[in-house]
């Protein structure tokens, strides 16, 4: 009854997992069989199932479940009914509530009869893995569209976008959520978080835990971030092409963080874990993505008296691109209308309640500017909506706002389209067409190579040519490098200041391989 081709795993959409374990989804009926020492007598014999999860299972916290044998099933609760009996074997139909904590449960059977009381010996081979259920209307991760469920839960390969909004690149990522051992590793990650399994029934809580555990900053999570360009102590972030190797290395080394990752790797692994546990998820790229360090909802650029950037004050940043995740769930903890897609981010940028994590943040709240709603809405709002404010230092040390730019961040927000390998632009889910309110700044992976000043007498159109030679910036290039051009000027007659910044990336040539004759595969080694 636990085989991948059996009725249980087929109906529960768990037949793709490469394991013989008994994997089911909460809130949905499943079948199981019990072999007894003699035929079951419903008049004189009593029988119930016991399911336990976590280090200290208790009934009060929902980590120990006593499943009674009832005459008829009602639904929406833990219950079992005998549907077939042949000799010493009895077949049960079992229901679970859609709020059950996910995890690995130890299963035993307790019987009581005239002759006494007995409890079966626990057999790890009969452990029950319970997952979230996007096919169950009562589950808070329920997703109505079958096409979207196939994409956001069952698809194990995807696309991750990078580059700039004018030069969008893409890479294939192998999520591999059904590969052998990955489900056990995902539960291992939850266990290593030290959070109580009693909270693993709430997807809001679970995604916050996973968001923290994908990065290694404060809890020995999966991946160590590195943006230095020096990866000699580990693996370059650009080498990874999927999540499986990262997760297996983390598990094999007993939760020693894997070196190294950047935003796309954090997001790719996050998608794997969420889909594996049954939470619909997708990988999302935001171009010109702001990083607001002071919750000001603006990107502040500080310039000195000569209009040169004051680097130690410019702590806000705008990344040429940043990758995070959306996950799908209801939000009963928020006002009505905030369910659906939620932004979550595992890249360690800022702390949330003392831990490096982000979300879940309702996209509806971000789009409508409800920055007072949890979790981390101001930060996500600033990533996609932000005015860039330029400040100039005065002789007395104070600053004046000299210029502002609107609509500079949050462009071409991208994810893989449902059912195809095309890019889907979902910017409209994050912001209104004309933008909202904002705050943030620009830099990581950017390099400032040179400064040029000149006095111009402008005609209506003046073209200023400037050459930046390779020798001037070659030593500052790192993976995914972008260059940022800062232009600032003052009108002598009016003393009006104008300023703007423009980012662009250096694109490596496409590699195209052609063979001159017909080629066939000779051997495949796995």
Write a structural description.
This protein has helices at residues 7-11, 146-154, 182-192, 203-214, 244-252, 263-277, 363-368, 377-384, 427-430, 470-473; strands spanning 22-25, 30-35, 46-52, 64-68, 79-86, 89-95, 103-113, 116-119, 128-131, 157-164, 167-174, 223-225, 258-261, 281-291, 298-303, 317-329, 340-345, 351-352, 355-356, 358-362, 387-393, 399-405, 411-416, 423-425, 446-447, 482-490, 497-505. With 526 residues, it is of the alpha+beta class. Strands 1, 3, 4, 7, 8 and 9 form a six-stranded mixed beta sheet that branches. It has a six-stranded antiparallel beta sheet with strand order 20-17-16-14-23-24. The longest helix is centred in the middle third of the chain and has 15 residues, at 263-277. The radius of gyration is 28 Å and the shape is elongated. The two termini are 29 Å apart. The model is unreliable at 435-444 and 446-452 (pLDDT under 50).
